């Protein structure tokens, strides 16, 4: 028996949403035992739940049994095999990504963050009138003497240039490594 | 013969140099991959091009497949990213619920059916047409769940979503599928179920 509602005008009342979610879970086998028996009971005793269950079950059965897959052209596999004939399998990424470098970069940034943190905390006046809350209230990042760290524009520019150069060198090093590995594996593009 | 081989065995042998065995994986998954790519493109030619690109990418990255998940899950992740990249590049017209063309398509399917009531469409055709009226995301979710043999967790991996989010989206997609069938294929449903 068909349980679809044939009227296009008929929509789902918003109160059905929760019921539908629980019923879909039941149909998909995602409910736990307790929930399953509870839903089974509801389906058996409550007409509204029974009707909705049959509706959803029909959709489920149609979808699980009648979705068809489209087929590409007959030559598809041949085309793919011809195309991949032009390439070699690339070496696994783990072979050319050196973990030591990753850890080195991580360590560098952690040290930088740690350094800034220690310096900033060192600037705080810990001897407030009331211990605890006063120390937090007195902390003002604007009052931190950043000039001790970067005392002029030239220093900032110097640091920035070094950082950029460092990143460029790292990029060149990784690129070289990757190229070497590809050559070793005989990969051509 | 390679027909009985498990995906992981085929991958192992392809990595050891038996590259022709990759065709077995293409044969196994080409229909599914093509079905998904067809959802993103306006023509079969484009869909085949994307599907071919998917398999080439999969082949070239085969050494990166660690076997932590099923090969199909890994492959469908490539399908998903390739389709999204393709869309960004070509800015193709995609069927979506917000797209008026979908409603035009729906209307034409519906009126076509009404115009020829003698024609009895199969359940397959009805489900196929109803799915075509859904948004790409809804159609993809339903296809992955019912035909891709992927669990909610695996679909979550493919789409980069939490399993719970996938579950809710799947519920909504199926509700919309039901609505499409109710709205546009009511008479067919009546024919099928009597």
What's the shape of chain A? flat
Based on the structure, what is the oligomeric state of the protein chains?
heterodimer
| The CATH homology group name of the largest domain in chain B | Winged helix-like DNA-binding domain superfamily/Winged helix DNA-binding domain
Biggest β-sheet of chain B: count, sense, barrel?
Answer: none
What CATH architecture of the largest domain in chain B would you give?
Orthogonal Bundle
Our count of helices of chain B gives: 10
Which structural category fits the helices and strands of chain A? mainly alpha
Which runs of chain B of at least 5 residues are low in confidence (pLDDT < 50)?
94-120
For the record, the CATH class of the largest domain in chain B is Mainly Alpha
DSSP strand count of chain B:
0
Order of helix and strand elements from N to C terminus of chain B: HHHHHHHHHH
Q: How would you describe this structure to a colleague?
A:
The complex is a heterodimer of chains A (189) and B (194). With 189 residues, chain A is an all-alpha fold. Chain A has two domains: 16-66, no CATH class; 93-185, no CATH class. Chain A contains eight helices and no strands. Chain A has helices at residues 16-27, 33-45, 47-66, 76-84, 93-96, 99-123, 133-138, 153-185. In chain A, helix 1 (16-27) packs across helix 3 (47-66) and helix 2 packs across helix 3. Chain B folds into two domains: 7-90, RNA polymerase sigma factor, region 2, helix turn helix motif (Rna Polymerase Sigma Factor, Chain: A), CATH 1.10.1740; 100-193, Orthogonal Bundle (Arc Repressor Mutant, subunit A), CATH 1.10.10.10. Chain B has helices spanning 7-15, 22-40, 44-60, 71-90, 100-115, 123-132, 136-146, 152-159, 163-184, 186-193. In chain B, helix 4 (71-90) packs parallel to helix 8 (152-159), helix 6 (123-132) packs across helix 9 (163-184) and helix 7 (136-146) packs across helix 9. The relative contact order of chain B is 0.11. The chains are: A mainly alpha (189), B mainly alpha (194).
């Amino acid at each position: 028996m068909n349980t679809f509602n044939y009227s296009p005008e008929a929509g789902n009342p918003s109160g059905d949403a929760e019921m539908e979610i629980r019923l879909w879970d039941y149909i998909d086998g995602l409910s736990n035992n307790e929930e399953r028996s509870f839903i089974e009971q509801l389906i058996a005793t409550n007409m509204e739940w029974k009707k909705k269950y049959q509706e959803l079950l029909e959709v489920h059965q149609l979808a699980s049994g009648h979705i068809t897959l489209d087929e590409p052209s007959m030559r598809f596999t041949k085309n793919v095999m011809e195309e991949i004939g032009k390439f070699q399998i690339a070496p696994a990424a783990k072979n050319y990504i050196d973990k030591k470098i990753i850890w080195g970069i991580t360590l560098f940034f952690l040290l930088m963050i740690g350094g800034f943190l220690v310096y900033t905390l060192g600037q705080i006046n810990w001897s407030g009138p009331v211990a605890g809350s006063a120390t937090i209230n007195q902390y003002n990042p604007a009052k931190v003497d950043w000039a001790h760290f970067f005392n002029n524009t030239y220093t900032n520019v110097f640091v920035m240039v070094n950082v950029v150069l460092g990143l460029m060198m790292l990029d060149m090093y990784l690129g070289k490594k990757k190229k070497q590995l590809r050559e070793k594996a005989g990969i051509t593009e | 013969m390679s027909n009985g081989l498990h995906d992981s065995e085929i991958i192992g042998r392809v990595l050891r140099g038996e590259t022709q065995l990759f065709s077995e994986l293409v044969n196994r998954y080409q229909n599914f991959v093509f079905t998904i790519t067809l959802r993103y493109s306006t023509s079969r030619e484009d869909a085949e091009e994307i599907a071919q690109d998917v398999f080439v990418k999969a082949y070239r990255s085969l050494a990166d497949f660690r076997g932590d998940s099923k090969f199909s899950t890994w492959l469908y992740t490539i399908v998903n990213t390739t389709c999204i990249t393709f869309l960004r590049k070509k800015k193709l017209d995609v069927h979506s619920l917000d797209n008026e063309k979908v409603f035009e398509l729906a209307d034409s399917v519906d009126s076509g059916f009404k115009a020829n009531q003698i024609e009895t469409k199969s359940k397959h055709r009805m489900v196929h047409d109803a799915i075509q009226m859904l948004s790409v995301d809804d159609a993809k979710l339903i296809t992955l769940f019912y035909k891709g043999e992927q669990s909610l967790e695996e679909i979550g991996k493919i789409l980069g979503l939490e399993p719970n989010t996938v579950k809710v989206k799947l519920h909504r997609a199926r509700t919309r599928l039901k609505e499409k069938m109710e709205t546009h294929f009511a008479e067919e449903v009546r024919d099928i179920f009597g």
